[in-house]
Automatic annotation (TrEMBL):
Name of the protein in its database record: Aminoglycoside phosphotransferase domain-containing protein
Xref: SUPFAM superfamilies: Protein kinase-like (PK-like)
Residue ranges of every copy of the Aminoglycoside phosphotransferase domain listed in the record: 14-98
Organism: Saccharothrix longispora
Pfam families xref list: APH
Amino acid sequence: MLPGPEARLARVCEAAVLAALPEAVPHPPVLAPGRTSLDGVAPAYSLIRRLPGDTLDRRWPALSAAHRHAAVARLGEAQRALHAWTPRAGLVGPLPTRTASSTATFTWPTCCGPSQAG
């Protein structure tokens, strides 16, 4: 888990990437990135809309061979769409890293500049 501003930056960037994904890549919409204070630590979070349904790992044992094949095919389609997607310039970039001296080194992607990380 990234601390402080780095965690907030990660959530802001996560929200921007999710909002830019093509519809062919199933994903929940991000309602809001945010942070809270817990014992002096400010963990970041992304509030996402709950999607109807169940997880595949829970349903898998009860699926017929045909339904398993269809599920794997849909996963493959989503993966192909994701790999074919080209994010707009500046949407993604390296997240901040910490050196041994705990000094943060930031490289800001365009979508997540310093004004959006706070």
